[in-house]
Structures are given as C-alpha cells and as structure tokens.
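Protein Record: Sequence and Backbone Structure Tokens
======================================================

Structure line: whole-number tokens from a learned vocabulary of local backbone shapes, matched to residues.

Purpose: to set a sequence beside its fold so the mapping can be learned.

___
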Amino acid sequence: MTMNLAIELTKYLMILLMGVYTYYSFQVLRYKNKWQQDRAYRMMTGIIFILHFIGYFTLYLQVQNDKLLLLYGGEVFLFILILTLYGAFYKRWSKLLIRNMLMLLTIGFIILARLSFDKAVKQAGIVTIAFATCLIVPEVVNKISWLNKFGWLYGVAGIVLLLIVLFAGTTNYGATNWLSIWKFTFQPSEFVKLLYVFSIAAMFHEGTDFKRICAITVMAGATVIILVFQKDLGGALIFFVTYVFMLYTATQKPFYLFAGLLSGSGAAYVAYKLFNHVRVRVMAWQNPLGYIDNEGYQMSQSLFAIGTGGWIGMGLNRGLPTDIPVVDSDFIFSAISEELGGLFAICIVLIYINIFVVFINQSLEQEDTFYQLLAMGFSVMFTFQVFLSIGGVIKFIPSTGVTLPLISYGGSSVFATVLLFMIMQGIYMRGRTGRRKTDTSETAAGVKRQEGR
C-alpha cells in the first residue's frame, strides 16, 4: 500500500517538474536581465537532477536492483562533469541548449532503465564517450574559418560511405544501413547527415547560380537515391526535406520550395508502388486494428499504450510498453506516454520546439552565409526527425522507423546528435562573438562622433 502511494505521488511530481522546466525553457528566451536568466538556469538544472533522482527512486522501489544505484550514480557524475567541464571551457555557450540536451537525455536514461537495464548501461556509456569526444568541437567550429572550403569533399565522402554500407552493410528491420567492423556495429547514415549539411551549406556559400544549383541537386539526389536502395526510406526523407529547405533558404525563391515538395510527393508515390514494406506501413497506418494480428500489431500496441496512459500515465514500471515491438528505439514515445502520461509527453514535444526556436535564432544571428545555412540545415534535419518519430507513433503519419533524438536507444543516433548539438554550440559562440564585435565597433563609432562634436 505504501509503495503504491509513493509511486502515485512520484508520478504527479514528475509531471509537475516537467511542466515547470518547460515553462522556464520558454521564459528564459524572453528574459533580458542576466540575473533573471541565471536564476532560471539554476532552476532548470535543479529540476533535471531532481527528476532524474525521482525516476530512478521509483524504479528502485519496485525492482530492488542495486545495479540501478550504480547506474544512477554514474549518470549523475556524468551530468556534473558535462556542466563543469563544458562550462569551464566555454563561457559564451548556450546554457539553454545544454540543459535541454540533459533533460532529454535524463528522460531517455530513465525510460531505458525501465525497459532494458543492459541497453541503458550501453546508452550511458556511449553518451559519455560522445561528450568526451566532442569537447573540442565547439572551439573548432568557432575558431576555424576554412570549414566552408570543402563542400564537394564532404558530399563525396558521405556518398562513398553510404555506398560501402550498401554493398558491405548488414540488414536490420528490412534496411541495409548498418556497418560492422570487428565486433563494433554502427549506422553510418547518422554521421553522413552531418557531412551532408556541411556539404550543401559550403557549396551554396560559394554561389546560387542555376548551374551550381543543378550540380548540388545531383549530389543531394545521389545521396537520397543510395538511401532508397538501402531501403532506409525514413533517412532518405529526412535528407530530401533538409535539402529542399536549405535550397529555399539559400536562394529565397519559393519556386524551389514548392517544386521540391511536389517532387517529394511524387517520389513518395513511386516508393509506395515499388517497395512492399512501404505498402505494409501504409496499411498499418490506415487501419491498424484491421491488421492487428500481423502488419498492424506494432501500431495497434502503440495506440493502446498511449490510450491506456491517458493524461497522467500509469506510473513507471506499471504499464506494458514491452508489448510494443522495437519499443526502446522507434516507439519509445509510446512507452513514455503510457507510463508518464500525455501531459509529460506534450512537455517533451514543447522542449523539442524550444530547441528548434534556439536553432533558428542561431541561424538568424549569423552574418556568414555558410554558418547561417549550416544552422538552418541542422534545425530542419533535427526537427523533421522528431516529427517523423512522434508522428509515426501517434498514427499521424505512417511509421518511418526513425529514432527520437537523445531519448531513443541507439549508439549511432545519440552520438551523432550530441555531435550536432556541439556544432550548434560552436555556431552559437560565433554569433555571440560577431555580435560583440559589432557592438564594440558601434560604440567606438559613437565615441568618435561625440569627439567630433
């Protein structure tokens, strides 16, 4: 009885904490006063650690596994190390962006520890390696000015890597997008995403004449076609949409945007006719209960989980999310909705929207076209992946089999996403440096005018 009461209380407390965190994540964008901003950031940091503790406390009450305590302690140490080291190295980094990262990672750690302890340990280990590896990345992006000189090299390197996977990769869930080297298996397309955006931004930085647009379109099209041959149609769709919006941003011509979206619709119809697994997913999307014994089983279980959770959820370890196939990666949003509730899940969506706003603001702050396009490309790529993942889970669109960034299980995905965020931190610092130089020059000009008078 006491345990049930404790779990029920922690459920409501986690929803409340998530709501307060989400509120502050948007409020801090409005604050102009540094004292107000720092107070909000302290509040957000405290909520992350408290939510993390409550999640593991709730799980430990029920499973009584001492290994959970070790995992929890390791993750707390990791968070402290990230905030301390990165804070010491970078004084002008985005405090909001890093806290949103840690909040999403916290949610992912908690739900993975509930679904599969072994996978939670692996995920925490990969996140640790990712942050250690990426420590220097913001400084590289901020200080090195010749990253925009190798557009074609980025693009060709990505295509070659995808071709290697196409001919020598392994197949999982119908897509040939994994590469095994010795005992290490990873998904190269997650890292090709970054090269792809770098490539397009660098090439459009050099010009947007029609001949160049055609050449870049051929390169981007080749990348997408290889992904189609790998049957990684979710990845192909992300690459395609990213290119269309980067093209529109670079040229400012609505024709390219509408033409791209129209051609994408045609390509989707062709994919439906050519690939059987696409037709299966469309069938499962249109009428999951009609095919519940086979094609619609995964979608039906996802909808049952979301419906069962309602607004406030069943409580951690009180639902049946493991009945959903591939729940720890593609359908992890369903598990969160079932056990932590619809209100908690909506807050997650709002945090992703908050990240998108921060990314777009970073793009608008850039004076250099390359970094402006780079930030825009990553904004679209990240947000569209979130849309595909959540949209497929809630039956808004057919499932595409993509992960939910920073929450879903997947070493390649979480490593590449951490790298993406660290690149965006470097772009943020460049924008702040440029703004400070502009403010300094304007102040100096004002002083000269005063002296002239």
Q: What stands out?
A: DSSP finds 17 helices and three strands in the chain. Residues 439-447 have pLDDT under 50 and may be disordered. Strands lie at 170-172, 175-181, 184-186.
